[in-house]
Structure formats: structure tokens, C-alpha cells
Amino acid sequence: MNRFQSKLVDHKYDLKKISIEILQVNVGKLCNLTCSHCHVEAGPTKTQENMNEETARAVVRLMDSLGAKTFDLTGGAPEMNPHFRYLVNEARNRGMHVIDRCNLTILLEKGMEDFGEFLAQHQVEIIASLPCYSKDNVDKQRGQGTFGKSVEALKKLNSLGYGRGDAGLVLNLVYNPVGIYLPPAQDKLEKDYKERLRDDFGIVFNKLYTITNMPITRYAKYLKVFNQLEAYTELLINNFNPHTVDGLMCRNTLNISWDGRLYDCDFNQMLGMSMRNGKLFTVFNISKKDLEDWKVLTADHCFGCTAGAGSSCQGTLDKDMSFRKE
Prior knowledge:
This protein is α/β, with parallel strands linked by helices. The chain has a single domain, classed as TIM Barrel (Alpha-Beta Barrel), CATH 3.20.20.70. Helix content is about 30%, strand content about 10%. It has helices at about 5-10, 55-65, 85-95, 115-120, 135-140, 145-160, 185-200, 215-225, 230-240, 265-270, 305, and strands at about 20-25, 70-75, 95-100, 125-130, 170-175, 205-210, 255, 260-265. A hairpin with a 5-residue loop joins strand 7 and strand 8 (about 260-265). The radius of gyration is 19 Å and the shape is globular. The protein starts with a helix and ends in a 20-residue tail after the last helix. The mean pLDDT is about 90.
């Protein structure tokens, strides 16, 4: 039994899936950036790990069989997958709420200039990574020049109506810590972000989500280089918050990889913790019955989602910060 599972037992939690509300699809690891905190280890060279047409069509069939209400596209830079627009069209035709997890800079790449218009036309919610409102911090984490490009992309999205409220086009931003610490209070940081981006660049957005960096894959390697992996892992364990467990995204989300395999979450996907019960679960063979009473697969990295205020794809899970033990 891993340490996280032991913690759940201590608090009398049995972590199981409830009804699937979100289909989260990681269409591949191809990306125009190589961020130090990326749990996907995405980058420009990952051309082979990219969803093909057959798998994309199977994903659409799964939309019909499971009846999820939200379709969450991630990557890599999901927009670089050739079937991205097809998947968005099919999800919207079924009345699903569609989310694009965007790194912003991709909207300025050659051949992608009309992507903002496409997303606006289909009323796709954009959740955009902007790990800080400071140029130095963003460029340190994501590469030289990415902050300036992100600002340019945000201005373009604002010009299309994103983040302004009246157009109904939702633009949310994501903050990741640069160092080995937990995110600060989400509400306070959102206020700071809104003031700085508005005053410095005239940029507006809807909400800010704070997400804890997960000590796996590329980020784990980064921490090892600076001899900080053990300290960061202990920080997460020591800040375990039982009030976050009920809201964990693995409970109502089904995660799909570029090759069609199924996982409880995107982090489990990157660690190869695939869902199976005598057979490997994929988009080609899964049924609703297979997911009934499904016990979520866990490991020590799960402390990243339950530390402090908690962390999910929609930000914090518990706004009470009194338990923090940094």
C-alpha cells in the first residue's frame, strides 16, 4: 500500500469514481514549448506521440456512450493535433461544453493565426497557462520570450471578446509556482493578476486557477538536479488536506491518452498507470458498466492534488487555508 492510500485509509476514504462528467483528452505530447514544470514532458520533437484519426473517431463514439457534459482538450499544445478541430466540432454538435488548455504562444505560430477565431466561433472556454504576471518568472519557467508572446496572444483573445463577460467567451488563466512551494491563496492571487495585467497591458480575464506542480517526469528531473525532490515531496505529504478528497478531479473525470488508453487522470497517464480489470481499458472497448464502482488508482504523486488548498484542473479545492504547514 502506497503512502497516499494509507492516508486515505487513516481518514476512512474509499476513493472511487462517481458518474463521468468530464472527458479529458490528451491528444499528444507535441508542443511548441519545453516548459521545466511540464508533467507531460511535451516538446517540439514529440511528433510520434500524437492522436490519429481512428482514435479521434473512437473518442467521438465515447462521447455518445458515456454522455459526459464537458470535453476537456489538453496536450502538449492540443491545437497542434490535426484532429483538434474535428473533435471540437463533434463535441459542440452534441451540446458539450468544450475546454482548450492553451499555452497562448501557440496562437501566434505560423499556420495557427486563425485559431483564436475558431475557438471563439465555437464558444470554447480557454484555460491558458500563465505561471506569473512577471516576465522574468515566466521566461525562466517556459523559455525566453514566452511572456511577451503570451501577452500578445491574450490581447488578441480580448479583441475577440474573450474574458470580457458580455460576449460569453470564457478566458481563465493558470498559475504554477516557480519554486518548491505550494500556491498561495487563489482569490488573493487572482486579484493581483487582474490588477497587474489590466494596469500593465490592458488585459482582462475571468478567473485564475492555482495548480500545484506535480513531482513527476520532467519536473521530478528538474527537482533532482537541484537536490530538491525529497524536500518538495515531503512538503506535499505534510500538507495533506482531507477536505480536498471529495473534490478530486479523478472522481468525475475519465482521462484519454493520444493512443486511446484510459486513465483516472492526466498524471496517472504520464506514469503509465492505465485503467484495467483483466483487460486494458481503451476508447475502443470501454463501457459504462466497466466504470461502475471503479476504484481510483493512486500513488505518492496524488499528494500533489491534496496538499494545501488542493489542486485540480479547475484550481483549488478548499479555500480554507488554516491547515497549511509550510
